[in-house]
Write a structure and sequence with these properties.
The complex is a heterodimer of chains A (217) and B (241). The termini of chain A are far apart. Chain A is mostly helical and 217 residues long. Chain B is mainly alpha-helical and 241 residues long. Chain B contains 9 helices and no strands. In chain B, helix 3 packs across helix 4. Classes of the chains: A mainly alpha (217), B mainly alpha (241). The interface between A and B is large, with 43 and 44 residues. Chain A: Belongs to the binding-protein-dependent transport system permease family. HisMQ subfamily. Chain A: Pfam families: BPD_transp_1 (PF00528). Chain A: It is found in: Cell inner membrane; Cell membrane. Chain A: This is Amino acid ABC transporter permease.
Chain lengths: 217, 241
């Protein structure tokens, strides 16, 4: 049996943390794109749009992320689609993030006072121009802090990808635990690495919230 | 690509699903109660003596719990703590992990609500002859709970959904049942769709129940966006300045 020094454990965990970051980034970018599309869909006057968006968020916010991962990985396989753990994790996390990001952004757009819409309408601005010059600049400002805050949830969410066999930080932790039989050290280090990734973002979110609130008043 | 889902074949496994559901329900009920109590005590301690060592340790623990994944917390408690001589059953580890997780999140939610009340009001309660705890409870805590009730409700639902992870340390919850059925029948799509649907219904039912409890506790007031009391004190302050 190979002996693992503390440095060996840490080194392997750090290497695996790259995949956690990569998956988080993919989920965040993918989730933002889908979430943005949903938000714009919601803002059109198309009758089915609001209902569709509501069902979408309800579905992804009302079921466990783990179930979504299982469905994307094992559930799809029976239809003859051979998906890798990578693809399944990326797709499930993207859909999961998009539902939450859409919910956040919808709230921000709706929080822009109605008078702003009416003012723009009075000035003769069309829908797109109103969005572009009046609504979005204000909504974006409100959206920044909660969006950064949600990115913490995405990083933590990627830990569940370990369950379907995607080797990121948590999976590397369980593998190292099996090899070293030092669960206390290994999982403490895993937790610390997650903390090192998430805490700065949490602080940033809190900082932005305090700052953007003051100037908005 | 021409696979037809076969839901009726799940029927023999209905008792397994129901047993799993019951485990998820009791886990959630127990940890929601304990977690909110823990959050209230944590907020009370940090309000009472914000600079004490214990409060600072609590603050660090809250940040640690909020910035690490639940599954890692669970593994640490279930696999890591026995190395220190603290062996726990899977259920016990799940209860502890879920309680700590909910307590950490809801204590931050509650603290935001407590901060909105302002220290002066608590002191006013003290000046009126209430004890520290009485003043805290009636002047600070209850309005904070009322103000933050919707956020707390969603947090409780999030913890319930997150509890799917406890299947990974072999607690026989709903997800565990789904995995069991899946490994017996290879009906992966069917069993996960049905289980996800059960979680969805559970989430909806839980939200409805918590709303009902909220209405019992606070009347309909917590549904209004801006509490009247806060508005009037704000107006009074403006008038005096």
């Amino acid at each position: 049996m190979i002996d693992f020094t503390l440095w060996d454990i840490l080194r392997n965990l750090l290497l695996a943390a790259r995949w956690t970051l990569a998956l988080s980034l993919i989920a965040f970018i993918g989730g933002s794109l889908v979430g943005l599309a949903l938000t714009f869909l919601r803002l059109t006057r198309w009758p089915g749009a609001a209902l569709f968006c509501r069902l979408y968020t309800e579905l992804f916010q009302g079921t466990p992320l783990l179930m979504q991962l299982f469905l994307a990985f094992f559930g799809v396989a029976v239809f003859g689609l051979d998906v890798s753990a990578w693809t399944a994790a990326a797709v499930a996390l993207t859909l999961f993030s998009s539902a939450f990001l859409h919910d956040i952004w919808r709230g921000c757009v709706e929080a822009v006072p109605k008078g702003q819409w009416e003012g723009a309408r009075v000035l003769g601005l069309g829908y797109l121009k109103t969005m572009r010059h009046i609504i979005l600049p204000q909504a974006l400002r409100m959206a920044i802090a909660p969006t950064v805050g949600f990115s913490v949830q995405i990083i933590k969410g990627t830990a569940l990808a370990s369950v379907i066999g995607f080797v990121e930080l948590t999976k590397a932790g369980t593998m190292l635990n099996n090899a070293t039989l030092e669960p206390f050290t290994v999982f403490a280090l895993v937790a610390l690495l997650y903390f090192a990734m998430c805490y700065p973002l949490s602080r940033l979110a809190r900082h932005l919230e305090a700052r953007l609130n003051v100037t908005a008043r | 690509m021409n696979y037809l889902p076969d839901f009726p074949r799940l029927l023999p496994y209905l008792p397994d699903l129901m047993a799993g559901l019951m485990t998820t329900v009791w886990l959630t009920a127990l940890t929601t109660t304990l977690g909110i109590l823990g959050a209230v005590m944590c907020v009370w301690q940090r309000h009472r003596a914000p600079t004490s060592l214990f409060s600072r340790l609590l603050g660090m623990l809250v940040e640690l719990l909020r910035n690490t994944p639940f599954i890692v917390q669970l593994f640490f408690i279930f696999f890591g703590l026995p190395a220190l001589g603290l062996s726990l059953s899977a259920e016990m580890a799940a209860v502890i992990a879920m309680t700590l997780n909910l307590a950490a999140y809801s204590s931050e939610i509650l603290r935001a609500g407590v901060d909105a009340t302002g220290r002066g009001q608590w002191e006013a309660g003290r000046a009126l002859g209430l004890t520290r705890w009485q003043s805290y409870r009636h002047v600070v805590l209850m309005p904070a709970l009322e103000r933050m009730y919707p956020a707390l409700t969603s947090q409780c639902v999030i913890v319930m959904l997150g509890s799917a992870v406890v299947s990974q340390i072999s607690v026989a919850d709903l997800t565990f049942a789904a995995n069991f059925i899946q490994s017996r029948t290879f009906l992966s799509f069917e069993s996960y769709v049905v289980t996800a649907g059960m979680y969805l219904l559970l989430a909806i039912a839980m939200r409805a129940l918590l709303n009902r409890i909220g209405r019992r506790l606070f009347g309909f007031r917590h549904l209004t966006p801006a509490p009247r009391r806060r508005l009037s004190s704000h107006v009074l302050k403006e008038a005096h300045s």
